[in-house]
Amino acid sequence: MHTDTPTPQQVIATPAAIALIGELCAEHGDILFHQSGGCCDGSSPMCYPCAEFLIGDNDVHLGEIGRVPFYISKPQFEYWKHTQLIIDVVAGRGGMFSLENGRGVRFLVRSRLFEDAEIDALRASGKFD
Question: Which residues of the chain fall below pLDDT 50?
């Protein structure tokens, strides 16, 4: 399938999120994000030190934000594959095990639906079935 539409990024971040990611990297070294979709903080992306989170066969590498890998569980990916995830920062308490916890802010997922041409471009790139 050929498309003239560039392949869109499946996950992006706001400037506020990029700034917080930079702070967390400076403090913790290599980090990653995981979006589980489960209960107990499942609606928020969780940020972990890379050495403390094991990526499994049931996780999809969605992309990178602030040079940090972002993973999502396969079931959650299937539910959200029609959307671009936009990672933002808002006031509040972070997830209990997420690295931003205790800073008075938390990561938040916003989203927008991909347009038909963007879905075609994702299919052409093999990133969408």
Answer: 41
Q: Which domains does the chain have, with CATH numbers?
A: 11-125 (2.60.300.12)
pLDDT, one tens digit per residue, over 6-38 is 999 999 999 999 999 999 999 999 999 999 876
In DSSP terms, 32 is beta-bridged to 48
**Quick one: which of 64, 73, 90 has its CA closest to 36?**
73
**Do β-strands 31-35 and 46-49 pair in parallel, antiparallel, or remain unpaired?**
antiparallel
> Rounded to two decimals, what is the model's pTM?
0.91
**Distance in angstroms between the alpha carbons of the first and the last residue of the chain:** 12
